[in-house]
């Protein structure tokens, strides 16, 4: 894990190279105040203060050998990513903003220096750390925790499935529970088959070494408000007997991205010591092809008691989440979040950057969208449209696990999940890609945390001091 704590330090007036931030409105005035040598360099580089992660090295003043000017979209509203390109590109050293404070951009400064290098024989970036000094000392620890949580998601999702099966996901959860003193329990074998039949059914085609299990832990005082966080932990998804094509299977190491989000969010809640009774649930399985795998047309039970006909073995994530939601609901929490790399339909509708968010509670929807805008971690609300419930109708069971129509796939998946959420409990479902198909500053290609900071901001707003 990147040592983020060394990259963001309190500004006590020590030596540091200055970073000047400009936007299209302020550039002309700033440029006029510069020396003729600096203006000549700006003209030669055609630097006009336009956004697009443009930056330029300038001769220093007052003894400094050089300084930096960088264009941002809007100085008064810095984004989390406006310093990320600098953190990726500048030489090793110590820096500070010449005017103002970095605020949310501190996150991008940290994540711009994070890389997943576990499987590289040589680190491509041989430079040392780029340290940012800030007078916002009160925000340093929280920013570091957010960077660590984001990197945690990325690292888990980027890990190949051969090294991250259900047992390895359990080990990761054990490490988190041990770090914060949470009480962990793992249900597997006969207890899983009897108590969580949908989780057991999805994982029954896997080898013994990659057997299914439900991982859960609790943390916090008994009398505190109960919050449940659930993450889909399909460590690899072949599609089962409804097997995916090679192109669809290539990224399926990321199908445990929901579990990575849930563990990271739990870490943030516990590190912040929010006054809640936290209940984390991760159903961990591998959806494999074998003679023991569930078949299209099978009917399986569920923890809630509903019988489910298997229309498509590649619609497995909603099955394991259904049992986990039923378990969470038994504890009568006041809030449930679930994260899942659930449907391709959500990506068709919203693309890779926007997690689809479904909720049964208007107040929760408004609060999540407000938090999303405030911290620039986008989500997009999608409808729980009751009229599509009939698409999940089964002739032989209580419901089918997939719709009888190719349309509204993300909606019908969320409607399936809603069947397992008790009435009166506020619930939000995040259908996230957990992957970035193309690199952006501070956001390399690969595993990505999407909606994580929004969910945490909502919890801090509701339960924080």
UniProtKB/TrEMBL annotation:
| InterPro entries named in the record | Leucine_aapep/pepB, Macro_dom-like, Peptidase_M17_C, Peptidase_M17_N_1
State the PROSITE patterns in the record: CYTOSOL_AP
Q: Where is the Cytosol aminopeptidase domain?
A: 312-319
Q: Sorted alphabetically, which keywords does the UniProt record give? A: Aminopeptidase, Hydrolase, Manganese, Protease
GO BP terms in the entry: proteolysis
Top-rank taxon of the source lineage equals: Bacteria
Q: Looking at the UniProt record for this protein, which Gene Ontology cellular component terms does it annotate, in alphabetical order?
A: cytoplasm
Molecular-function GO terms, alphabetical: manganese ion binding; metalloaminopeptidase activity
Q: Which family does it belong to?
A: Belongs to the peptidase M17 family.
| Protein's UniProt name | Leucyl aminopeptidase family protein
Q: State the species of origin.
A: Sphingomonas cremea
């Amino acid at each position: 894990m990147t040592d983020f704590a060394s990259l963001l330090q309190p500004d006590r007036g020590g030596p540091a190279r200055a970073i000047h931030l400009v936007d299209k409105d302020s550039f002309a005035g700033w440029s006029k105040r510069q020396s003729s040598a600096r203006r000549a360099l700006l003209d030669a580089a055609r630097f006009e203060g336009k956004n697009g992660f443009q930056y330029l090295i300038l001769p220093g003043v007052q003894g400094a050998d050089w300084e930096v000017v960088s264009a941002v979209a809007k100085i008064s509203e810095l984004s989390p990513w406006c310093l990320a390109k600098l953190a990726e590109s500048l030489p090793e050293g110590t820096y500070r903003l010449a005017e103002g404070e970095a605020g949310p951009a501190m996150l991008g400064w940290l994540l711009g220096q994070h890389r997943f290098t576990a499987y590289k024989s040589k680190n491509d970036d041989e430079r040392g750390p780029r340290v940012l000094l800030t007078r916002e000392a009160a925000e340093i620890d929280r920013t570091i925790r957010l960077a660590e949580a984001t990197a945690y998601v990325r690292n888990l999702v980027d890990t190949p499935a051969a090294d991250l099966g259900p047992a390895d996901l359990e080990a990761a959860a054990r490490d988190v529970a041990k770090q914060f003193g949470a009480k962990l329990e793992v249900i597997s074998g006969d207890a899983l088959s009897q108590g969580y039949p949908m989780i057991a059914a999805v994982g029954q085609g896997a080898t013994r070494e990659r057997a299914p299990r439900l991982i859960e832990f609790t943390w916090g005082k008994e009398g505190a408000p109960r919050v449940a966080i659930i993450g889909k932990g399909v460590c690899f998804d072949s599609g089962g007997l409804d097997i995916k094509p090679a192109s669809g299977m290539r990224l399926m190491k990321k199908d445990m991205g929901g579990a990575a989000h849930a563990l990271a969010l739990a870490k943030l809640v516990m590190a912040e010591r929010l006054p809640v009774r936290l209940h984390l649930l991760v159903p961990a399985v591998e959806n494999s092809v074998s003679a023991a795998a569930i078949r299209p047309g099978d009917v399986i039970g569920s923890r809630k008691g509903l019988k489910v006909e298997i229309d498509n073995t590649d619609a497995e994530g909603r099955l394991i989440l259904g049992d986990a939601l039923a378990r969470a609901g038994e504890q009568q929490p006041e809030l449930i979040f679930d994260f899942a790399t659930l449907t391709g339909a959500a990506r068709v509708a919203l693309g890779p950057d926007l997690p689809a968010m479904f909720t049964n509670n208007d107040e929760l929807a408004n609060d999540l969208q407000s938090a999303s805008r405030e911290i620039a971690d986008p989500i997009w609300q999608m409808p729980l449209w009751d009229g599509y419930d009939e698409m999940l109708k089964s002739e032989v069971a209580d419901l089918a696990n997939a719709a009888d129509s190719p349309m509204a796939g993300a909606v019908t998946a969320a409607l399936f999940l809603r069947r397992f959420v008790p009435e009166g409990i506020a619930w939000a479902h995040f259908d996230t890609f957990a992957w970035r198909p193309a690199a952006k500053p501070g956001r390399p290609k690969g595993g990505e945390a999407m909606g994580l900071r929004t969910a945490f901001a909502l919890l801090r707003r509701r339960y924080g001091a």
